[in-house]
Amino acid sequence: MLTVVKSHYLYFFPHYLTIKNLYLLYVPQFDPNGRQCLTIEGYRKIGKIVHDLAKQHSDGRLVIVQEGGYHVTYSAYYLHAFLESVLSLASLPPFPDPIVYYPEDEP
């Protein structure tokens, strides 16, 4: 079982972290303001982990809530990659990541 809890999350989610069998997953998008830099492949891997956890612990039942973000264009790509993994629907071939770097990082 993969468990990652950073102490600053405990401040925001203390009630939810005490509910038995609740898995709270916070995944920041590829956010130019916050520079989390999670790629499309990263979202695919997280989707697979979430799929496996739901299958193992809740007979595949899952609730997904998406909120907004700063990089509106990229949101559609990462959501697609995440959902195709959660639902076990692979794109053939997987679509490429349109934003795998920040333009200002080029020499």
TrEMBL record:
Superkingdom to which the source organism belongs: Eukaryota
UniProt GO BP: chromatin organization
InterPro entries: His_deacetylse_dom (IPR023801), His_deacetylse_dom_sf (IPR037138), Ureohydrolase_dom_sf (IPR023696)
Keywords tagged on the record: Chromatin regulator, Repressor
Transmembrane parts of this sequence: none
Residue span(s) of domain Histone deacetylase: 30-84
Entry-linked SUPFAM superfamilies: Arginase/deacetylase
Keyword Lipoprotein: no
Protein name, entry field: Histone deacetylase domain-containing protein
Lineage of the organism: Eukaryota, Viridiplantae, Streptophyta, Embryophyta, Tracheophyta
